[in-house]
């Protein structure tokens, strides 16, 4: 194996040569305490940075095995190391002269969530740190001495300060691992105790701003209504008390600007675990919960929306409904059905982002328009049967209609950011106000079908068959865009990067014209569970910045691809 001194000599010898000569670096080099694998060398100074892996034996890091001996612990430790490396590299990069990414080192940058990533991977023997290095140049000529400083000195410095246990904030690492185990325990207990979400007392739900996911300073801390207060005794030895939301139909009501949507946003983000001091570290929602909204203009391919929409003018079949430009109501009906197809057991709905005619149909409108003339069965008529027939719960934000009082199992009111239980008051109003709304149509929810994707969904050839992420909410398949703005629970660009890799794998290995979308998706996630995200990538070595999305977001992306064909 080549040594670090060989790499140092090579870099210095390349000084002043054309940029393409950097490709001679590719290979594996032995440093004192680690190996450096240079997997991909950028073709010019303006291309994405070069990909490298630092491979260090677990024993060299001296990180105790009790922080690494389960998957949850490895995810927590990997996340902590990623953040520590990121901080160290920012310090190093400030010492590097030059513009852009010249001579600088980067690692995936996590947000407030703890996600399974490819940035730091811990296996049986080694820990791999996946970094990117901007190989320096003056114009298109190599700056070999600067490159040598970055790689020969900067990377070992990173390893020493950000990977070796003796130099880590050991207390913070141990606390993050303990927190992750506590969060996993609460999420497991939700199912055991027939709950859908938990919000700890003292949680900080508002965020700093619309462009910052950090907690708001001086925000009002969350306090549970006494009726819904529940205490979990956690593996760490601590006890945490807060609001436990039972399965069923939960309404969150209140005036405008009183904090209803803030609570729902915290619940929808808390399908993921959060880091210490985020304010939501003990806000835990069922992992498969899906935010449902209207999504005008989206593509729909062969979806059975007949539980909500039937008897369309022109006798259009809604058991196999397709459109390239869905309306608000048809898009929201589709989003519900697709969430059920993706095995979601909790729906999160905010009236602010919903189609009114999908959500409600009041008594006066029922009197004016005969049932046989109205093709839409509102969600208010189906939400109860959805729970009774399929055990799918709903948490619903409403402020403008009391139609859901009749079907709600619990009603909570946000009043100046304080939550109150008003279930009895809401039920009394529903029983005594004399306002009666007829429940039209079949009282069962309807049949759920499972669509089978077809191989000719992805027919592009050559460079056109590539998937490329364009930020958080957009993917290009060749020249065809896939718009993901309706998937509000995507939280990290690296999740979108991972979805592109997963789509490519799904295209090549997942579709066989026999397995349903959920069957093929579950098989792919089974592979990820056992071999990691990089098992899907056809790149050897550094697979890029990837973070695991939920299967709900993967299937949601597939459904928004306008070329999808199913039977």
Automatic annotation (TrEMBL):
Name of protein: ATPase
Domain ATPase of the ABC class N-terminal: 5-165
Superkingdom as given in the UniProt entry: Bacteria
Segments forming domain ATPase of the ABC class C-terminal: 170-446
Originating organism: Staphylococcus hominis
UniProt cross-references to Pfam families, sorted A to Z: ABC_ATPase, ABC_N, MRB1590_C
Gene3D superfamilies: P-loop containing nucleotide triphosphate hydrolases (3.40.50.300)
InterPro entries: ABC_ATPase_C, ABC_ATPase_put, ABC_N, MRB1590-like_C, P-loop_NTPase
Ranges of residues in domain MRB1590-like C-terminal: 467-567
Organism classification: Bacteria, Bacillati, Bacillota, Bacilli, Bacillales
Coiled-coil ranges from the UniProt annotation: none
């Amino acid at each position: 194996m080549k040594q670090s001194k060989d790499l140092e000599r090579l870099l210095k010898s390349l000084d002043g040569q054309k940029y393409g000569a950097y490709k001679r670096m590719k290979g594996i080099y032995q440093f004192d305490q680690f190996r450096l694998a240079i997997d991909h060398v950028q073709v010019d100074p303006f291309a994405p940075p070069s990909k490298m892996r630092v491979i260090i034996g677990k024993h060299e890091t001296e990180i105790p095995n009790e922080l690494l001996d389960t998957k949850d612990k490895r995810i927590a430790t990997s996340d902590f190391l990623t953040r520590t490396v990121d901080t160290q590299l920012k310090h190093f990069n400030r010492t590097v002269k030059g513009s852009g990414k010249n001579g600088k080192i980067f690692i995936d940058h996590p947000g407030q969530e703890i996600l399974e990533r490819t940035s730091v991977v811990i296996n049986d023997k080694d820990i791999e740190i996946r970094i990117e290095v901007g190989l320096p140049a003056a114009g298109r000529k190599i700056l070999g001495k600067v490159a040598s400083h970055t790689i020969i000195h900067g990377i070992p410095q990173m390893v020493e300060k950000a990977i070796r246990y003796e130099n880590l904030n050991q207390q913070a690492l141990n606390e993050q691992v303990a927190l992750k185990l506590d969060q996993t325990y609460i999420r497991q207990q939700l199912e055991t105790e027939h709950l859908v979400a938990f919000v700890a007392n003292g949680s900080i739900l508002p965020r700093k701003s619309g462009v910052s996911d950090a907690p708001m300073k001086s925000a009002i801390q969350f306090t549970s209504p006494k009726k819904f207060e529940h205490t979990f005794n956690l593996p760490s030895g601590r006890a945490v008390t807060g609001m436990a939301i039972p399965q069923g139909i939960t309404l969150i009501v209140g005036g405008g600007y009183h904090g209803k949507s803030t609570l729902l946003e915290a619940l929808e983000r808390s399908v993921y675990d959060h880091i210490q001091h985020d304010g939501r570290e003990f806000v835990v929602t069922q992992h498969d919960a899906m935010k449902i909204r209207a999504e005008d203009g989206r593509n729909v391919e062969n979806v059975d929306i007949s539980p909500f929409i039937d008897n369309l003018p022109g006798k259009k079949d809604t058991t196999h409904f397709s459109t390239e430009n869905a309306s608000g109501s048809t898009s929201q009906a589709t989003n519900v059905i697709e969430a059920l197809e993706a095995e979601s057991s909790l729906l999160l709905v905010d009236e602010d982002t919903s189609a009114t005619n999908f959500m409600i149909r009041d008594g006066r409108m029922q009197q004016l328009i005969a049932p046989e003339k109205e093709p839409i069965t509102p969600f208010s008529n189906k939400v109860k049967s959805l729970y009774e027939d399929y055990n799918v719960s709903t948490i619903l934000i409403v402020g403008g209609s009391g139609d859901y009082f009749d079907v709600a199992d619990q009603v909570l009111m946000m009043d100046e950011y304080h939550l109150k239980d008003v279930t009895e008051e809401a039920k009394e109003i529903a029983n005594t106000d004399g306002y009666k709304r007829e429940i039209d149509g079949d009282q069962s929810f309807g049949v759920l079908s499972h669509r089978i994707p077809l191989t000719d969904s992805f027919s592009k050839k050559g460079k056109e068959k590539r998937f490329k992420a364009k930020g958080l909410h957009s993917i290009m398949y060749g020249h065809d865009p896939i718009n993901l703005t309706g998937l509000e629970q995507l939280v990290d660009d690296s999740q979108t990067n991972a979805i592109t890799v997963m789509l490519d794998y799904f295209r090549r290995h997942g579709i066989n014209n026999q397995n349903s979308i959920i069957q093929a998706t579950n098989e792919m996630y089974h592979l990820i569970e056992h071999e990691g995200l990089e098992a899907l990538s056809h790149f050897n070595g550094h697979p890029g910045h990837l973070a695991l999305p939920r299967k709900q977001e993967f299937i949601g992306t597939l459904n928004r691809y306008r070329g999808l064909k199913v039977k």
